[in-house]
């Protein structure tokens, strides 16, 4: 009996990993059923919309501009390796403004409680994780975002890996909270990259990165050090009001068009080039 159970379990796992195409709604159904999702060499059709999860709670904000917020929860492991997402990947959804300009329509955010892996993946449409919270290991290494990558206000509580990631659309990390170290080593930002007001309390690696458009690091706090060694800024680089409290490495950095370090401070002192 035990052997039969193991055989059925193996068959189930193989059918999942060998499947070449799966819809986003099927993945949501698996999570709703309490199953881990591990896909490799697969194509995900339609939107992968985590705001559709059944596991959610309502959060009501008070005030004249109040709106209902829903916090959705992914409590199982997510692992996508060499996968293509044909639709949007949504960890955030805002249904828009009301008739009088108030944000009185629902807002959906998603928390990821277990490990999340998007390695060597292709996001062909927008990927939105605004206000999402990641509590376990996260990697987007070697992936490609063809459209907008929205990580504004996102919280990462463990180390994060964006190394060798290609951002073809805008990359928004404004106000993002990185609790541990993070790497963007050898990443390629073809469109604008926004790290305004972002805090890096445990250090960040931007070595050998290519910024093909505007790079905004205004008010960014590099508390435990940063490296831009071998990095290329092909357009403007704005470090106005940024704080460099730890070791900073700009060895071999190429500031192509314009770099603004006005009012920038390093270890409490005004920046000197």
Describe the fold and architecture:
It comes from Neolewinella agarilytica. InterPro entries: 5peptide_repeat. Keywords: Signal. This is Pentapeptide repeat-containing protein. With 273 residues, the chain is mainly beta. The chain folds into 2 domains: 140 residues, no CATH class; 83 residues. It contains 2 helices and 40 strands. The strands form 5 sheets. A 10-stranded parallel sheet has the order 1-3-8-13-17-21-25-29-33-37. A 9-stranded parallel sheet has the order 2-7-12-16-20-24-28-32-36. The longest helix has 17 residues. It is globular and about 50 Å long.
Q: What is the structure about, briefly put?
A:
By secondary structure, this protein is mainly beta. It has two domains: 19-158, no CATH class; 191-273.
Highlighted features:
mainly beta, 2 domains, ten-stranded parallel beta sheet, 38% strand, Pentapeptide repeat-containing protein, signal, 5peptide_repeat
- What integer value in Å does the Rg equal? 20 Å
Biggest sheet, spatial arrangement of strands: 1-3-8-13-17-21-25-29-33-37
Number of helices: 2
Largest sheet: 10 strands, parallel
Number of strands: 40
Strand content: 35-45%
> What percent of the residues sit in helical stretches (DSSP H or I)?
under 10%
**Class by SSE composition:** mainly beta
Principal-axes shape call: globular
Question: What is the CA–CA distance across the termini?
Answer: 73 Å
| Sequence stretches where pLDDT stays below 50 over 5 or more residues | 1-18
Q: What number of domains?
A: 2
Mean pLDDT: 88
